[in-house]
Design goal:
By secondary structure, the chain is an alpha/beta fold. The protein is built from 13 helices and 12 strands. About 40% of the residues lie in helices and about 15% in strands.
Length: about 375
């Protein structure tokens, strides 16, 4: 998982996140489950936030299911629900899983604050909760994700590198993620730490629900406000939004400006190959999913997390949550082979369809 200069040491991530949050601890963060010890025949409730982003259904869900099977000798099972970007629906899904007496929950929250009461309900029912990918509020027992400020810094550094001597020649547009997602705030913070003072931000948006169509609309507004001749680059917090942004840029006749992304979605990788998108952030989902599954199984079985969770993270409501933080990599056309292809996320055939074959040949992706 350590790749050249872009890989980030997990220990360094712990330092940056352990300092976050100073609110009073609300009873979570324990490394042991309050439920009695169980064997391998456990039920894991998995709640993912939406299906707009390709990663959740394609990677996270099957990876977690596979790991739970491995850890329980095939006896454990995963019950799944997707909230489709609806925080109210996700709270109802938690209630249903509590009623059905799952042994542990893995929750990737739609809204980190709105899930708080549901996490408390699970805790009261003796069901431990692993916050997955997003740091949910409430008395969570464990957390796994990436160092989100480092993700933003990686994006910002890549954008500056792409701009080079042109960084002061115009203005950039910043397209951040949803204001209800705590990760989005951390991406934005990390990006600003790198970009502030080095480029001028002409327009900046928090994009409702991370939707590409909202990013597209925002970008159209930014083009009108800033002027298409003045825009030299776009910070996009993820690949889905980058797609909507690039559509708006093309419609306005703007090309050859760097656009960032995140998640290494197939469409994003193809846009990188084609030169339409400059970079993405590759977040290896396998170790994140494996960590969530391992912590969930250990919590359900009443085991300590000390051997798994080497880091501690503070949320706004809970201090010192046992955590696993996974390194990230800046993905450009220069390291596609060494990242998503090497790790088996995509094959060359997946990326280099007929539409992209010539572009793939040009960068030696065969």
């Amino acid at each position: 998982m350590r790749r050249a200069a872009f890989a980030v040491a997990t220990g360094a991530m712990a330092v940056s996140l352990a300092a976050c949050g100073s609110a009073k601890e609300s009873g979570g963060g324990s490394s042991k489950s309050s439920s009695p010890k169980k064997g391998d025949a456990i039920t894991v409730g998995l709640l993912l936030p939406e299906n707009q982003t390709a990663r959740y259904e394609k990677f996270d869900k099957p990876l977690i299911e596979k790991k739970v099977q491995e850890l329980t000798g095939g006896k454990g099972k995963v019950v799944y629900a997707n909230a489709k970007q609806d925080a109210t629906l996700q709270n109802q899904q938690v209630d249903t899983m509590i009623t059905n007496k799952v042994d542990v929950l893995i929750v990737d929250s739609v809204d980190a604050a709105a899930i708080k009461n549901s996490v408390q309900k699970a805790k009261d029912a003796g069901i431990p909760v692993v916050a997955y990918d997003r740091l949910a509020q409430g008395p969570i027992d464990a957390y796994t994700s990436f160092d989100n400020e480092t993700v933003g810094k990686t994006q910002g550094e890549a954008l500056l590198k792409a701009l080079g001597s042109k960084a002061k020649s115009g203005e950039i547009v910043m397209m951040n993620g949803s204001s209800t997602d705590p990760n989005a705030a951390q991406f934005k913070k990390g990006a600003h730490e790198v970009l502030d003072g080095k480029v001028k931000v002409g327009k900046e948006y928090d994009t409702k629900e991370w939707k590409p169509e909202n990013a597209n609309s925002n970008m159209e507004g930014a083009i009108s406000a800033v002027g298409k001749k003045n825009i030299i680059g776009v910070y996009s917090a993820n690949d889905g939004m980058a797609g909507g942004i690039i559509t708006a840029l093309k419609a306005a006749g703007i090309s050859n400006i760097p656009v960032t992304g995140q998640d290494a979605e197939l469409a994003g990788v193809q846009r990188i190959v084609a030169g339409e998108q400059y970079m993405s952030v590759y977040k290896p989902y396998a170790p994140e999913a494996a960590a969530a599954a391992e912590m969930a199984v250990d919590l359900a079985q009443g085991k300590s997390l000390d051997s798994v969770a080497k880091d501690k993270v503070d949320s706004p409501t809970t201090k010192q949550v046992p955590s696993v933080l996974v390194p990230v990599t800046a993905l450009t056309k220069d390291n596609i082979k060494d990242t998503v292809i090497k790790d088996g996320v995509y094959t060359v055939a997946d990326i280099c369809t007929s539409q992209y074959k010539a572009a793939c040949d040009k960068i030696g992706l065969k």
